[in-house]
C-alpha cells in the first residue's frame, strides 16, 4: 500500500496544545467496528461501553525527562540529545541534534558539566549511542536536568510534568507518553473495576518505533524500530481468563495493542515474557488478541494510523477522521479519542437510533 493512502487534511488549529482539564472531559467518538456507525461522547462515558468479564489492558510505562539540552564542549554550539533506550548502565541509544556536527568522540556538556555525554557510533536507525559521565545516580541527574520529551507539534511548555504521565504510570523508561492513557482518572478506573472489568497492566517503553515517521513510498517498506515490552505471568493469565469466560480484550492505546499482539500465539493466547518488539501492524494484519481499542487521533501517514486502519478498515478510519475534523475534535497527543468496539462479542450496548 502507498503511504499516501493514509493521508488526510488537518487544520493546524485542531492540534491540541494542552491536555483536557479534567482529563476525562476529552471528547470520545465511539465507532462500531462492524458497521462503522458512530456516536459522539466524552471520555467519562467510557465505562458504559465495558462489560463484566472484559479485560481492560493498560500500558504502565512512565515517561522519563528524556530531552537534554546542552552545548558542544569545544565550541559552545547548542545541542540536543533525546534518550530513547538504555543499552548499558551509562550508555544510551539516542537521537541528537545537530547530527552532522556531533561526530564520534565529541563531548556534550549539560548543566555546566553536571552531565557529560560522549557521542559514539551511529545506530541502525540513524541515531547515536551516547556514553554519559556524571556524579551520583544518573536518574537523579536526569530528573534535575532533563525535560519532558513533548512532540514537536506541541509548542507550549508544560506547567506540570505529571500532565504528560498517565495516572497509573509506574515503570520508568519511555521517551513519549502512551497518550490514550492520559484520559483516565482514578474515578473512571474505579467505575470500570466496579463493573466487574479486570484492569490488567502490561508494559511497552515508547521509543522511536512508535513515533518515527514513515518516509518510504510503499508503507510495507517501513522498518519499525525495536521497543522493550513485558507481559508478566499474572497479566497473561488474567487476559487469557477473560477470553475464556467470553469477555473482550480492550486495549487502551496502540502500544498496548502492539504488546499483546507481540506476546500472543496464533490461537490468540497471550504468553508471558519480555523482550524487544518491532511489530508493524497495517491493513491485512490478522489480530490475535485485541478485540476493541481506545486510542487518540494520530498523525497523517503514521504507523499508528495504519494500525487503527488494520482494525477498523482504512476507508472507515479515514471517514471517522474526516468527521472528527468537521466536528472540530482535538488531535494528537493531548487531543480527544476514539473507541473502536465490537458489540457482538457480548451482545453489547446498542447504538443510539
What does this structure look like?
With 353 residues, this protein is α/β, with parallel strands linked by helices. β8 and β9 form a beta hairpin. It starts with 26 loop residues before the first strand and ends in a 12-residue tail after the last strand. The longest helix is centred in the C-terminal third of the chain and has 13 residues. α6 crosses α7. The chain is built from seven helices and 17 strands. The C terminus is likely disordered. Strands 2-1-17-16-14-3-12-13-15 form a nine-stranded mixed sheet. It has two domains: 247 residues, QueA-like, CATH 3.40.1780.10; 79 residues, QueA-like (Thrombin, subunit H, Beta Barrel).
What's the arrangement of secondary structure elements?
Elements: E1 27-32, E2 38-42, E3 55-59, E4 61-63, E5 67-72, E6 78-88, E7 91-97, E8 107-110, E9 115-122, E10 128-134, H1 138-145, E11 171-174, H2 186-194, E12 198-204, H3 208-211, E13 227-231, H4 233-244, E14 249-252, H5 254-263, E15 273-277, E16 292-296, H6 303-312, H7 314-326, E17 337-341
Parallel strand pairs: 1-17, 3-12, 3-14, 4-11, 14-16
Antiparallel strand pairs: 1-2, 5-6, 5-8, 6-7, 7-10, 8-9, 9-10, 12-13, 13-15, 16-17
